[in-house]
Amino acid sequence: MKRSLAFLSFFCIAQAIRLEPGSFDLSPYARDRDAYLLFINNETKTKAFDQEPDTLVEPLVLETDARVFMIHNLLTPAEADHIIARAEPLLSRSTVVDGAGGGKVDPIRNSAGTFLNRRSDPVISRLNDRLSHITRMPVSHQEDLQVLRYFPGEHYYPHTDFFNTPIEKSEANGKQRYATILTYLNDYGVDYDGGETIMPLLPPTKAQTAWANVTECTRGKLAVRPKKGSALMFYSMNENGDELSSSTHGSCDVLNGVKYSAPTWIRQLPFHPSSLPPGGPFICKDGNQNCPNWAAQGECTKNAAFMAQTCMLSCNLC
Fold this sequence. Notes:
By secondary structure, this protein is an alpha+beta fold. The protein has helices at 2-6, 8-11, 33-40, 77-87, 122-135, 291-296, 299-302, 304-310; strands at 17-19, 55-63, 66-72, 92-93, 96-97, 103-104, 112-116, 145-150, 156-159, 177-184, 192-194, 197-199, 222-224, 231-235, 249-251, 254-257, 259-267. The chain is globular.
């Protein structure tokens, strides 16, 4: 953990660091790097995903007890749209951690959500490698990508991402969550209003002084109005392993439209490594020989959740 947290000091010497497009593929921490490079260069790669985004990491807060960064252009618009399309058929009411290794429905959080496995398609694999490059930690320490959808009136009240029970932060689960990367999949002010990310224990940024229509939810605290493809990254622990209350964060009520976001949590140890494909990302394929016929009969819409899991190729989800 100290190796990763020490990486934060690098950001103190400049206002922002630009990550060279294409450099993500060369992350030394991706165990399946060679297989991944081979895959993205083969003929199945689509033109929509040919271009790496010009990613910029900008520090927002650099204090002893708070580390917050904005990652600009983490995803391309096409990649963000792809993740929404993958997740939409699988969404169900979001839950919160119940302290016993499971989840429970709670009014603190009334969005819909689902998880997309690491390396489960080329786009998610590219995101996994970019986050490995930025955090300087292996993909194995990332949890699966959660995708969230917020309709008007839906929110996530302020909370922390670190765990408070031994079960949730056991070695078998990868120990504690020490960093969060919250990726935004569509645009504030275009696709929806409201839904800002807030960190109520931290002061507003200078950029917020130019905001119009400031709501009570965002007033007087650090807040982010999401831009498609960008991400907010913050650390829940310091270099000594102390959990940071400054990482408290939430999502304001969406006022109109629909908001999509996708958090990734980084653990101290590998997270369920047996679930991480050892040979690189899954090839885009169907899991049943009947998938083309089912798709032709309209099952991609009528039986969306099953088809999204079983017939990715025939339903054009990869």
